[in-house]
Amino acid sequence: MSPSLGHGARYQQLASDIASRIAEGDYQVGDKIFARSSLASQYQVSSETARKAVCVLAELGIVEAEKGSGVTVKSRENALLFISRKREAKTLSHLKNSILEKVERQMSETAELKKQVKMLVDLTERFRATNPFIPFEVTLEGNLPSLGKKVSELCFWQSTSATVVAIKKKENLILSPGGATVLEDGDVLYFVGDEGSYARVKHFLQTLQIKEAFDY
């Protein structure tokens, strides 16, 4: 039964197989292993494939090929070095392919995520456009200057173009709070307005805080 060769260029696989047998001690330095014709017959490859394999091994100093004398083993050390480099190249190739597959998969997942985010934004904008009275909400906490003040003192609508529709105080929800309602830490303010309302309200609250800080 002839030795089997792996995948890849046939002459490269043939060269690797012969080098492996030299490295493992099947062939000793000085041994005459094959003539090219018998090498081609044993591995069931063409004479040209056998010639290329021998040329590779000869160039690496593993064997010596002389016309009429066959192929002679020249160096086991060079055979070991050749096999080691082949294994490293195979490992690098496997690692490269693995990284490329992961990058491609990540790019695909990122594209799908972008698609879903865009769909979510589109649906949200469409939903809000058809339901303009869905309120925004903001929690009053920290050192906001509005705390302790009445709703009427804030001039909320004049400053933000938004309308307060409810205030939640702990577990109590006050709908359409009157101007005398006092804002306290932890209150949740519900208001309606256009798409820019939330940003204006946040800015308004921060501006109040800055102004009061400068008053001292």
Topology:
Elements: H1 10-23, H2 36-43, H3 47-59, E1 63-66, E2 70-73, H4 76-130, E3 136-139, H5 151-154, H6 156-160, E4 163-169, E5 172-175, E6 188-192, H7 197-215
Antiparallel strand pairs: 1-2, 3-6, 4-5, 4-6
Helix pairs in contact: 1-3, 1-4, 2-3
Structure notes:
- With 216 residues, the chain is α+β, with helices and mostly antiparallel strands.
- The protein has two domains: 72 residues, Arc Repressor Mutant, subunit A; 80 residues, Regulator of K+ conductance, C-terminal domain (Alpha-Beta Plaits, 2-Layer Sandwich), CATH 3.30.70.1450.
- Helix content is 55%, strand content 13%.
- The chain contains seven helices and six strands; from the N terminus they run H-H-H-E-E-H-E-H-H-E-E-E-H.
- Helix 1 crosses helix 3 and helix 1 packs across helix 4.
- The chain is rod-shaped and about 115 Å long.
Features of this protein?
Arc Repressor Mutant, subunit A, 216 residues, Alpha-Beta Plaits, 2 domains, 7 helices, two-stranded antiparallel sheet, 6 strands, alpha+beta, disordered C terminus
Précis, in short:
With 216 residues, the chain is α+β, with helices and mostly antiparallel strands. It has 7 helices and 6 strands.
User: Level of helix content?
Assistant: 40-55%
Cα gyration radius (Å): 40 Å
What share of residues are in beta strands? Answer: 5-15%
CATH architecture of the largest domain: 2-Layer Sandwich
* CATH homologous superfamily (4th level) name of the largest domain: Regulator of K+ conductance, C-terminal domain
Give the mean pLDDT. Answer: 82
Q: Please give the count of helices.
A: 7
Number of domains: 2
For the record, the CATH class of the largest domain is: Alpha Beta
- Which segments are poorly predicted (pLDDT under 50) over 5 or more consecutive residues? 209-216
Note the gap between the termini.
99 Å
Strand-and-helix sequence, N→C?
Answer: HHHEEHEHHEEEH
Major sheet strand order:
3-6-4-5
Shape: rod-shaped
Major sheet: 4 strands, antiparallel
CATH fold category name of the largest domain: Alpha-Beta Plaits
